[in-house]
Every structure is written in C-alpha cells, then in structure tokens.
Specification:
single chain, 37 helices, 5-stranded antiparallel β-sheet, about 950 residues, alpha+beta
C-alpha cells in the first residue's frame, strides 16, 4: 500500500515537502474543528458538568487505650469531641494573594474561637510573657529543634549562627514578615483596599500576631502534603461547631472533624500516677521514632506518669482511606477498597484499687487539715526558741492571712484591673503608697554615699535586699550570673556569709568583676565603666521591681504586719474573687467586725473550703503507699496535694499549669516517690535484725536506758529523758528506745580487740539496710528518686537519723519485706495489658528481688516488737483487726515541725496489706498512725465510708511529748 502511494506521488510529480505540508494542514483542520466543538458548541455544557478531582489519602485516627484499676474501673478513657482542622487547598495567583487569603481565614477562625471562649491548641514555643513581650517557653534541644523547623532546616546543625541565636522577637518578626506569612509587608505594604477586600484590619495586636503566626506555622508544616489538614483547636463547643459549619463556604480549608479527648476520673488522687497527655514535642518525637515507632507530627503522647511510661502500649494505630476531593477540598468520593481501619491502643490495668486510692487521699487531706488547725494560734508572730521541741512550734494566724497572697490564693494582679471590686481598689491604693515608700528607701540604700551593711539593716529591708539579689537579679533575670561569680571571693563572702558590706558595695564590686550581664539594661554598643553599670542597674531595679509579683508579695506581707491591711479584708477578698462561694451574711459579719478573721479562717480550713495545699504552710503535704505483702502489688500510691490532670490534657490550660508550677505546696512533686526524708525510728527494725544476725543480740541481750547512751560522747538522747530502764530486742522496738539501739550499734562497731569503730558500726548497719534493699528504688514504674544511705555516725544511724533518707515507696517495700518475713519484691503499679478485645497481651507479676537469709526467730522477734507498738497505741489497739507497726519522727529542721511516719501491716497473724505513711512536718507520729487506722477501717469494712470521710478536718495530736 505504501509503495502504491509513493508511485502515485511520483506519477503526479508532488515534492516530498509539499506532502508534509498537506498532512499538517489536514491535522490542524481536525484540531480546529474539535476545539470549536468543545468550546463553542458544547463549552457551557462541559463547564457545568466538569469537576477537577484530586486523589488524597485521609488519615483515620486510632484511639488511645484506656487505663483501668485492678477491678476494671476506668481511670483514663476517651470521650467524643470535635476539633477544628485547616488545610491549604487553594490556588493563588501570587504569594501576596496566598498570604492575604490564608491570613483572612486564620483571622476569622481566631475571632470565632475567641467569641466562644475557645483557644488554639498548637505547639509553638513562643509565648507572651507577663510583660507582654515575646519569649520562649522551651530550652535546650526542644528550643533548637523548634528554631530548625522555623528556618526549614532538617538538622539543628544546619542552622546558621544567627538563626541558632535568634531571639523570640526576631523569629516573630521573620515569621510575620513578607518572607514567610506576610502578616505585614514592609517592602510593598498592603493597600487599604486589599485589606478591606480580604476582611483584614490595618494592624494586629501582639496577641493576635502570635495566634495568627501559630496557625500559619502549623499549616506550613504540612506544605509538602498540601491536602493533609492540621488541627487548630480541640474539644470545641457545639456553638463553635455550629458557627464554623454555617460559615464554612467562606472559610477556605476549614472543617470540623470528630475527635476524642482524654478524660481522667478521680483526677486529684490519681494525677501523680496516671499523668496526662499532650502534643508531642520535637524531642519526644525524635526519641519515639528512634525506637522504631511511626508517630505523626501532631501526635498526642503521654507527658507524665503511666501515660508516659506505657506510651507505646496505649498509643493506637492510625488508619487511612483514599478520597477524591475538588479544588475546595470537598470530598467527592471515597475509594471503596482503600479503607484501612484504625486500631485502638491497648488497655493498661493497674494494681491500684480506685476506691482505696480515693479514700486514702481524702483521709490524708482531712488529717493534714486537722494538724494545721490544731497548731494555728491567734498571734502575729511565733518565735522558735533555742532548744525548743519542734512539736511545740505553732503557726500564727498572720502567717495564714499572708499565705493567701504568698501562695496566690488571691490574685493580687486583679486588684488594679478595671473590673476590680471597691475593696480590691482600696487595698491596691494602700499598696501603691507602701510601694512608693519602700522604693524610696531601697533607692536611698543603693545611691547614698555610706549605706548600712546588710547585718545592720532592719529585718524588713534585709528581706527586700535578699530578694533583689537572689531571686530577682540571679534567678529570675540572670543579670547576676551564677556561673561568673567566684564563691571563694572575699567580697562575695562578706556579702553572703559575714553580711558586713552593703548592697551598693556588693553590686558595684560585682559590676567591676563582670559578674553582671548589662545587656538587659543597656544597649549593646554602649560602653559603661563599673560605676556607670551600677548606676544603670540601680535605675533598672527601681523601674522593673514595680511590676514584679514576688517583690509585691513581700510588700503585702509587711502591710499586713503593720495593719495597713487587715486579715478581715483578705478574708473578704476570698469572696470578691470567687475563691469561696458567695455568703452575704458572713461577708457583712467580717466587714462589721462581728466575726473575727481568726475564727473565719479556722472554720474554712476545718471544713476544707480552704485546704492545706492552698496555704502551703506546715503541714501541707503527705503520702501513703499500700501494698499486698504476698504479691508485691501496690494497692494505693497517694501523694497530697494532687492536681486536676483533666486541665492539662488535651488543650492545656496554660494558666493552671503555670500556677501549679509555682505552687509552694509542690503538687507536681510526688511525695510518695520523690520526697526523701530520714526514716526515723522506723529504721530500728534494721538495727535489731543486724544485731541478731551478727550474733550480738539474743534473748538474754539487753541494755539499761537511763535517758542517754553513755559510752560515746555527744550520743543522742532517748525520747524518754527519764529512761526506759531495762530493754531487750522486743521491748526496744515496742518502746522505740534510742539507748537500746545505740547499744546495739556500739556493739556492732566494736572489733575483736574491744575497740569501737564508728565506721565499722555504720558498715554493719548498712549491710542489713542493703539486704532490705533500702539502698534501691522500690520498682514503681513512675519517677522515683534514689535513697541515700548513711555514711557516718553509727549511733544516729541506728535510730534512723544521720544522713540516711528514703521515700515513702521505699518504706513500703521495707515493711512488705518484714511482713512477708524476708521476701523482697520489686514493687509494681502494673497488672496487665490487654488488646481492645480484652485478650491479655502482657501479664505483669512483681519480681521477687530476693529472699533475705534471716533466721525465723529474728523475724518473730521484730514482728513481736512491732505488734507491741500497736498494742500500746490507743488508735491501733481499738481496731478489731490486729496490726503490727513502727512509728517514726524525723527531725530535719529545728525551726519547723518534724516529719510524722508510720509503717505497719495487718492482720498480724496472717499479713495481707502493708502500709507506709508520711506527713511532711506532721509534728507527731501519732498523726501518721491515725491515717493508717482510718485506711484499715475502710479496707476491712470496720466503719461506713461516711464515718471515715467526713469532708472536715480530723482531730490531731497536740501533745509536745514524743514517743519514738
């Protein structure tokens, strides 16, 4: 056929080029005809029916597993909620148009959230500080990783020096500028018409700028997956959902998605164990990914407690599905065969008993409140005299009034707000007068020619100056550099130890030694000599201290003591600021003076309307650990005070977090596993076991207690100064006789030649402390500090003093070992892990760390001694269940009450539970005993719950005589 065509062409004489031209003309004619048909004849019809579809993989979030107690009662679970999501699904003619469009969407979204009292939930490490300035809220790796993300660097090492050292202000200027998100455009400013057409104001407030940058920043992190949405806000209200859905057609890329929030039951009593969840930071993501786990950038992870410890067990697995969307992101179709179902995380069961934990927390709070009430006196001051028994220390009511301000029960910053009450305004006016007077005095001390030495100042002025140097310049501002100061310097010693120089002399000297960072109060290019540095610093202090809350609190303290403000006024402010529920009759009674502020505060503490934790006075904390002595499982692990972890999970309440962080009662500090104190007389069981196992103590061994051990100089007194008389091993434990324990320690430290060696005595005692594993962590799967073993002073070590210190959890393992006659467990909070169908994946059984090689007669002896303690105790002997135990009082600060301790087990004949109780600065061990008693009453159904947990302070031991 081809040959025939060639012959035809030759025959008619056409050239080859002519043929090619003809072919192209024919093809062009066909193309023109087709275009005419598509655009002219059928153009409108095709345009109406056309939809550009884009294939997109949508993530289906897997739900987090539940945390339950030993009986399957929920402690942490998920609840349906709604989240606001945003994706960049637009097409733009220019970067300028893109920024204007996305900034409008972000601005409108922000206004909707604000109108419903909602906030964004975006991890972004810049905040507005109390001065309204941009500041970082992270340090170290997390901050550097954030900077790398901001500047688009894969590794921190890739950052340029300027980027690595960028300030919060510089990063905000960069992100808000035309190079990134274009909130402002300095090179080509937006016209008024452009802004109006995009619904944007001419300028933004610093807060608006921060929030808009946060939204644009989180959206930019998905720029490589343009159609993958990011979460802007979580757990939003139905009103927010309704408004967004109503305006969705004008809010490009905005949508509402079903989500879940984490909910915690019995939050306060369990928070220290369960912890909470939150958005993963860079460091956490890197760590999890290094372990081989696939976590998305916006993953929610455990931040503390069991949530963190069991993160990879609890975390669900995301699913996915393929969808087709139009240019506006609207889903057109879901590909039927593409769905990969998400998987729920595993459920974690704890060994804890939910009800026992809750009851124990309430019992502990009631007792602490009772001790506090019993020791408050109606006085301005209480002076601790030399040699005074710490059990005689009292709390003056003015300390209670001051605590309302000092621990931020009252918000002093609100006193100056426009909506402040008349009383708040009156108090603030008096504060301003006091502040003006004090600033004049401080400035005089800073500027006059011959200021007084620190030791010659009034107590009030000393407190102001100490705060200026230690708290303000050194800790808060870093102006006085700790790293630069030479602690051996004679002038530094003259200020800190001898107190023989003035503040002016010290700061002038510090300036000359370059201990002061001048960058915060002078420009970088300004050279100042030491005198000029000091002058600039003095001016800076008087200006910046005006807004410093810590300094203001000291001013209020002295206003109170000078009666410039009254306790009654502070009590009334509790109602003004809604700390207490409105009570007009009581308010008027306080105002008229018919009710004393002292009686009011005692009543509110007694009824737990004002709690010990809020006041942060002695005592304000405590802990209890309860074990199953036959398995090593932990039935309760309580620390007081707790906190509401619901307010930290999901969209974190940052104000609440900040308040908890600064709370003087230390709610984030787990008193059961992180607080170290001397074990006191609870250690005496170790001393007796050591004596018996070393062949020193037997049934005929004894010591005569005359009130003080007399074979070593400066030996500790026995608590019974008149002496116990003859004591053996059993009665030595029962009566907690120091002299008996000292005799055992002395004999342990006496060598074959009859020579006493303190170090040998300590070595022998520590040998048995180590056998009890008191030198190790207890094994609980949450943060726990290591104990400290004694290094000297065998006599004081034998009675649980010296430098020996342990946690309540470690005391709990110790008493569990005693109750089980030598079985030492690795305590555990974990019971089992199951999948979503209830199938057991992992079963946790506490590990037996070892069985002590101790004679049966030794166990019988120490247990009999502990049984004697309970029989001689009115609280424990009244129980219908038999108890064995050992009390302890740990004295660590002569100006504060001693710590109260108790450890015990029950029933005595066939032990089931072990209990360790500690009340920090709880005065007497009998108070710890009362806590254990009420726990056993509940545990063994010896009283109704309503009789045990009354919601009011329980009575406390007010005697000043120790018995251990």
């Amino acid at each position: 056929m081809v040959k025939k065509i060639k012959k035809f062409i030759k025959k008619i004489g056409l050239k080859r080029t002519t043929v090619v031209i003809l072919v192209f003309c024919a093809m062009f004619a066909v193309l023109i005809q087709r275009l005419f048909s598509l655009q002219i004849l059928h153009g409108e019809e095709y345009a109406e029916n056309f939809n550009l579809s884009i294939t997109k993989e949508r993530t289906l979030k897997g739900t987090r597993g539940n945390i339950l107690d030993r009986n399957g009662k929920p402690l942490a679970y998920n609840q349906l909620s709604y989240s606001v999501i945003l994706e960049d699904n637009g097409t733009y003619d220019s970067t300028r148009e893109k920024n204007l469009t996305l900034n409008y969407v972000a601005y409108e979204l922000l206004n909707i959230l604000k109108s419903h009292n909602e906030s964004t939930d975006i991890t972004f490490h810049i905040v507005l500080d109390e001065d309204g300035k941009y500041a970082f809220d992270a340090t170290g790796f997390t901050l550097n990783r954030f900077k790398a993300d901001v500047y688009g660097k894969a590794k921190i090492e890739d950052l340029k020096k300027k980027q690595l050292n960028a300030t919060a202000d510089e990063i905000m200027e960069y992100l808000a500028g035309e190079e990134r998100f274009g909130l402002v455009n300095k090179e080509k400013p937006y016209t008024k018409k452009e802004l109006e057409s995009h619904g944007l104001p001419e300028s933004f407030t610093p807060e608006e700028t921060l929030e808009l940058v946060k939204i644009r920043y989180i959206l930019s992190t998905n720029s490589f997956k343009k159609y993958v949405p990011v979460t802007i806000a979580t757990n939003v209200s139905e009103e927010t959902v309704a408004e967004i859905m109503e305006r969705k057609d004008k809010l490009q890329g905005v949508d509402i998605t079903e989500d879940s929030i984490r909910v915690y039951d019995e939050a306060e009593s369990f928070a220290s164990i369960i912890g909470y969840t939150g958005k993963a930071d860079s460091e956490e993501l890197e760590s999890l990914r290094d372990q081989g786990y696939d976590y998305s950038t916006d993953a929610v992870v455990g931040k503390a407690g069991i949530e963190k410890e069991m993160e990879t067990k609890l975390q669900g697995k995301d699913g996915s599905e393929t969808v087709f969307v139009d240019t506006m992101g609207k889903v057109l179709k879901i590909e039927s065969d593409s769905r990969k179902e998400p998987e729920s995380g595993n459920d974690v069961y704890l060994t804890l008993d939910k009800d026992l934990q809750r009851i124990t927390y309430d019992i502990l709070e009631q007792k602490i409140a009772g001790i506090l009430v019993a020791n408050i006196i109606n006085a301005k001051e209480f002076k601790v005299e030399d040699g005074m028994d710490t059990a005689a220390i009292k709390t003056p009511i003015y300390d209670v009034y001051n605590a309302l301000i000092n621990n931020s029960v009252l918000d002093i910053s609100h006193f100056k707000e426009d909506d402040a009450t008349e009383l708040e305004k009156e108090v603030y006016e008096r504060f301003q007068q006091k502040q003006s007077e004090v600033f004049a005095q401080v400035k005089e001390e800073l500027t006059k020619e011959n200021p007084a030495a620190y030791k010659d100042l009034s107590e009030e002025m000393q407190e102001y100056q100490s705060y200026i140097v230690n708290d303000f310049l050194m800790n808060k501002k870093g102006i006085l550099s700790k790293d630069s100061i030479d602690s051996s310097d004679s002038v530094y010693k003259a200020w800190t130890k001898e107190e023989s120089i003035s503040l002016k002399e010290f700061l002038t000297y510090a300036a000359g030694k370059n201990w002061i960072d001048i960058s915060q109060f002078s420009s970088e290019d300004e050279y100042l000599d030491s005198n000029e540095v000091y002058t600039a610093l003095a001016d800076y202090l008087t200006e910046s201290l005006a807004d410093d809350e810590g300094f203001s609190k000291i001013l209020y303290k002295y206003m109170l003591h000078e009666d410039t403000i009254s306790g009654a006024q502070l009590c009334m402010l509790l109602y003004d600021q809604n700390v207490l529920e409105k009570d007009d009759a009581t308010y008027q009674a306080l105002k008229s003076g018919s009710m004393r502020a002292y009686d009011f505060m005692i009543n509110k503490i007694r009824n737990l309307e004002i709690t010990p934790a809020q006041l942060a006075l002695d005592p304000c904390s405590g802990s209890v650990v309860i074990t199953d002595v036959n398995t090593g499982e932990t039935l309760a692990c309580v620390t007081y005070p707790g906190y509401d972890n619901n307010r930290l999970a999901n969209n974190m309440d940052t104000e609440y977090f900040a308040k908890l962080s600064q709370d003087l009662s230390g709610p984030f500090y787990n008193k059961a596993t992180q607080q170290l104190t001397a074990p006191g007389s609870t250690f005496k069981v170790v001393t007796v076991v050591a004596g018996m196992e070393e062949g020193i103590v037997n049934d005929s061994y004894g010591a005569v207690c005359t009130g003080q051990f007399d074979k070593v100089a400066n030996a500790p007194w026995c608590w019974l100064h008149s002496g116990h008389g003859y004591m053996n091993a059993v009665s030595g434990i029962t009566n907690s006789c120091n002299v008996f324990m000292n005799q055992v320690a002395y004999d342990l430290g006496t060598d074959a030649d009859g020579k006493y060696s303190d170090s040998l005595g300590v070595e022998k005692l520590m040998k048995y402390a180590n056998l009890f594993r008191l030198n190790e962590k207890s094994g609980l799967e949450i943060t726990e500090v290591s104990p400290k073993m004694s290094t000297s002073d065998a006599l004081r070590t034998s009675i649980g003093q010296s430098d020996l210190s342990v946690t309540t959890s470690q005391l709990a393992r110790y008493v569990t070992t005693i109750a089980s006659r030598g079985t030492s467990y690795q305590l555990s909070l974990l019971d089992k892990v199951t999948d979503s169908k209830g199938e057991i994946i992992e079963d946790y059984t506490p590990e037996v760390k070892g069985d002590m090689d101790v004679a049966d007669h030794t166990w019988t002896t120490v247990q009999e001694g502990m049984r004697g303690v309970a029989k001689n105790n009115a609280s424990l002997s009244s129980l219908s269940v038999s108890v064995a135990g050992k009390t302890g009082t740990a004295q660590e600060d002569l100006t504060r009450p001693s710590h109260a301790l108790f450890m015990g087990f029950a029933p005595y004949e066939n032990p089931e539970v072990g209990i360790a109780v500690r009340i920090g600065n709880g005065y007497a061990s009998s108070n710890a005993v009362d806590v254990a008693k009420d726990i056993l009453r509940y545990k063994y159904n010896l009283a109704d719950e309503s009789e045990i947990v009354t919601g009011t302070a329980s009575s406390a031991d007010t005697t000043t005589t120790r018995n251990d």
